[in-house]
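Hello,

Our lab assistant flagged a job as stuck in the queue for most of the afternoon. It eventually completed. Since we weren't sure the result was trustworthy after the delay, we are filing this so someone can double-check. Below is the sequence as submitted and the structure that was eventually returned. Let us know if re-running is recommended.
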Amino acid sequence: MNRGIITTQLQTTSGQPPDTYSDKIMKSIPAEIVGAWVAAKGLVDSANNVPKNTTLWICFAVGVVLTFLWTRKQIQGSGQPPSLKAKQMLVATGAFIIWVFALGPPFDSLAWYHSLYASLALIGYTLITPLVYD
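-- returned structure --
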């Protein structure tokens, strides 16, 4: 599956139709990086004698950078105009941030964090982001 968002028929050479709302959701979530985050979080949680919160913040920062770079690599040669590529890279990076935020650590160490609001933010972000491509 081509990971680049297709908003018009002119953006594809294969005759593929423009992406549906659901396609845009799927292509906006960096599932591989979110999966890597879950694995890294599990490793950090099971480790002994490490500063867990600091390690999670470092893993989070690395994940943000990796999401941007991974998305850029995945949409390379997709036929998208540069502005749409930039938008998709930013949306995917925001999606990673909001997924980590909703999952809790390391954000749950902040005094203002509340899991209910984080989960609601995830739902809202996921449902609204496909609209930014229109």
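-- support follow-up --
The delay was a queue issue, not a problem with the job. The result is valid. Helices lie at 21-28, 31-46, 52-74, 82-103, 115-128. Residues 29-133 form one domain.
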